[in-house]
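Please review this one.

:::
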Amino acid sequence: MEFEVSYQLDNEQQFWDELDDIVSAECQTHGLIDDALRSYLTFINNFRGEYLHTEYDIARCAFKLLESTLFSAHKDYVRRQIVFSLLEEDSADALHLIIALLLFDGRDNEATFELMNEEGIFPRLVELIQEKKDDGAGLHRMLLELLYEMSRIQRLRTQDLRSHTVLLEDEFIQYLFRVIEGLSDDVNDPYHYPTIRVLLILNEQYMVSTHDPQPPQQPQKTDPLTNKVIKLLSTHGSSFKTFGENLILLLNRESETSLQLLILKLLYLLFTTPPTYEYFYTNDLRVLVDVMIRNLLDLPLSANALRHTYLRVLYPLLAHTQLKHPPHYKTEELRRLLGMMTATTGPGYGHFGAVDETTKRLVGRCVKVRWLRDDEDGEGKEGRKGSLLEVEMKEGMASSLSVVEVTTTRKGRPGVVTGSREEEGAGKDKEQRMTMSRDDGDNGRGCDGHAYHDAGGGEAVTVVPTSTATADTLQGKSPFEVEGEA
């Protein structure tokens, strides 16, 4: 017979004190650990209505366990038990706490997300997102966040992306699009961030599964996966215009490198798939051109990988969409930008630093867009030769790597932020001050008392105080961030 403890509490402080006692138990066997975890979940569920009223309260309960001696002494076993609980639990209140535990723990330790993938949690999350949509916005949002975080650091199992093994059918993708359309006037979440990120990472997973060879242990041939995100936008795009509008708004504001890359790769597919050439409204495309011009001009010199991806998207945007029809938009600004990116002398020279061969190739493709050439009024063939737009390359010097091939490169970590020119300049100023301080004997600390480090990773150099440096700047890269080309 199981021994159960009943609690009589008089106030909220007693609740938190009792919870501390539960997670501080010393457990020497798996059976005792299981008993402590059951007590933890049962105690919280019993008093949830009285003392837990906000998302902060749920997070506080989760961190009580994650920072406890019970967890620190038996991390692997406790993690596995929590994952198994997600597969078996059906109560919305219990699921909310379990999801919070996995989300917060996984953000600090990716092994948790990898374990979830191994145990087939992805189909379960898809199922819960649909079934628990009416059980509170907090639970629903956290389910979306957990699915995104789990999926962005690793390749999902191909069988989990196939419709016959998971509820990842057209209806699920349509449901996500409808969430965005239905909340288009929600001032508290104008970009429907969690839902949009799930659609972006699903598109990424489809791209990787389609273009990355099957693992050796799966030699049998199977039908290629259908990218259901692109399929739905190809067939029902006119019903889901808000998603496209929010993509552009998000790209305009996003500073995290991995999110920019996810958005750009979806845009690339939309602009290279004939049924979605004209998915966006013309005015939205013009806004996108403004965003791309500004971002290309503002990217730090070290962000070559991101700059290349912007250029890969720019060509089909200009060549395939409504922008190819007159009146043409920002013709002169586009010419000046492209000219600056390959200039070796004259105006604009030096803004983008040394010109690499990939940039030459990608700019060369963009300047061949017919309307950019045809609109060069007043310049004859001789006038154009030697202009800022002229890109001359020897045969065979250009990189042959495509954006689709780049998606399968297993480098780059989510969470890395691409700075701006202004921030890069500020970083250089700090580096100079740090060097001066070292000369004065401050043992490698800057004028503000912090030691500074190169974040690494091939992207913008981020100057970070050691006291606030995160795992994103210190560990390896994500498998889904595009790496610069040689």
Remarks:
- The mean pLDDT is 76.
- Residues 135 and 471 are 33 Å apart (CA to CA).
